[in-house]
Amino acid sequence: MLSETQATAPRTTTGGLAGLPPVTSDSLLALIAMANADPRPDKIDVGVGVFRDAAGQTPILKVMKKAERILLETQSTKAYLGSAGDKRFAELIRPILLGPHADDERIAGVQTPGGCGALRLGFELIATANPNARVFVSTPTWPNHRPLIRGTRLEIIEYPYYDRDSGTVRFEEMIEGLGSAREGDVVLLHGCCHNPTGADLNDEQWGEVARFVAERRLLPFVDIAYQGFGRGLDEDAAGLRGLLAACDDVLVAQSCDKNFSVYRDRVGSLFVKSGSADATARAMAHVFQRAREMWSMPPDHGAAAVRIILDDPQLSADWLVELDAMRDRINAVRRRIAAADPRLAFIGTQFGMFSMLPLRREQVLALRERDAIYMADSGRFNIVGMADHSIDRFVAAVVEALDG
Ligand SMILES: Cc1ncc(COP(=O)(O)O)c(C=O)c1O
To answer: Burial letters for 121-136: b for 16+ Cβ neighbours within 10 Å, e otherwise?
Structure first.
């Protein structure tokens, strides 16, 4: 049976690698393997977490190809860069992410291996500063959050987040659930395009969360892996910026893997804000030490190519055009699915690549067997996982499943 979380194997006591117990594989990776193995030519894989265009492809952005050519031509050394990675990359991400807070000396950023690297590094920093901190995560949340937190041995506590019937955020229950958090506890928030639900906080709710965490002296950790995929670069970072205005201590895990379409190149960054520039500098010294212990230094290629784009006004403008096109497709497909049936209308009110269909597990499995449609057991599916020509078939099969 597939589960949403990756099982962690107990430690073996026999010693030697042969004594290792088997590990249950990540459910989403298992789903991708199952979809790949299905021979039916019209299969639809909406379990995968990458943007696909109208033709069902995940092409390299044109601007990225240009930047990579420039990198190939101009790079003169591959000597080590150090644990901070490409410093100019982090400087260029700063205004895109932080907006009016970009000049705040209490905020420092470092390149990481993707958003996962940033999350892990942030949790390592928290575990170093306060090993008793508990991490509050939304129910549901992206399945890899738990393993990333568990690796640092911090305790995980869930807070209610999503109402499957209405497709909206259970905001009052969320705040109530966070009521048990103690000073110094961490609240993990999705900056935009909540994965797996697509249900984001609205501006007013973000304001309330900011007031709540500031008042209770909690530590907000914002995971923003889809900036620009929801409403726009600034709009998608508005909640995060409100937290920066309200709180002394804030962590942000940022990823370029989706919005630059460089998934396997592992491009991201961790930003840390504390109460003073000195305290932030001290925190960053720990960050570099933790990074050194884990990956020593981040991979260069993808971040160097993003840096080339963001350092050049024309290439930056070209990137924004391609980013807008990705967002437009996500929102157009959302509208098309939402219009097909009143029970799917909620999909048109949500943001980002994912939504969760109100299907039971048996219905999800039936879609897999009968229709060769692959989505997570939870009903999470990738809005842009399918080509345009598959949308009608997908919607018809889902409506049939909902009727059944
Ligand atoms: C919510 C969320 N956070 C972080 C990530 C990590 O992204 P990356 O591939 O950059 O590690 C993802 C990727 O799927 C995600 O969905």
So the answer is: bbbbbbbeeeeebbbb
